[in-house]
Design a protein that fits this description.
The protein is 34% helix and 27% strand. By secondary structure, the protein is α/β, with parallel strands linked by helices. The strands form five sheets. An eight-stranded mixed beta sheet has the order 5-10-2-1-13-15-16-14, with helices on both faces. The longest helix has 25 residues, at 65-89. It starts with a strand and ends with a strand.
Length: 265
Amino acid sequence: MKLTLVKVGGAIVENADSLHLLLDKFARIDGYKVLVHGGGRSATRIAEQLGLPQQMIAGRRVTDAETLRVVTMVYAGLVNKDIVAELQARDINALGLTGADMNVIQSHRRAPKNVRMADGSMQLVDYGFVGDIDRVNADLLADLIAKGVVPVVCPIGHDAKGSLLNTNADTIAAEVAKALAAVFDVTLVFCFEKRGVLRDADDDNSVISTITQAEFPALVEQGIVSGGMLPKLENAFDAIRAGVHEVIITRADAIDESDAGTRLC
């Protein structure tokens, strides 16, 4: 049974025109499907309006207690429910979920870890209320999907001890895809505002059509893959090794084009 899991980033969901186009195309995807979304730019904007400075390290948000409140309100509230309402208008029976809902994604708080910085140095970083995923309840999700429900998952997990945890949306998408690969033939699609992974960040036509696991380290070393794209590809290759059939990185308006974007293998 084929299942398509689409992950859409904040730059898409925060623009009405791009979101509507993405959801039109998502609604037309054949077979079973899941949508995972971010919303980081909105969270950053609202946090800064509230006087809460934001810190990103190696493409990941450092989440203190106040920032956790903001990202929960933005991801699980405004962004998630806007998407669910838009899908209902397209006759898609969507259900918005955090990891805490029905215990669908259980995580633990990330311990401080050494992170390689942009200058090549290593730094011990405490990411705060950031969760690393322990388990995804694939059986429960599969049961919902088989009943015709389309899960819309935001990047908030929980630790089963009463605390919510912020998790990178790409990681959520990859872990959900890996869990569902035991039940479905899963294609994971990361979509954002670019046409794919670009060899030259300033040239939208420099799409790398295919990236293998063997080629990936050299692209990182050359600086072609960096910033937020780095964890995206790390999660993608991890998903492939765990049984996901295919991972595609493409523009939101091209999710229904078979030859678009960058394919990872």
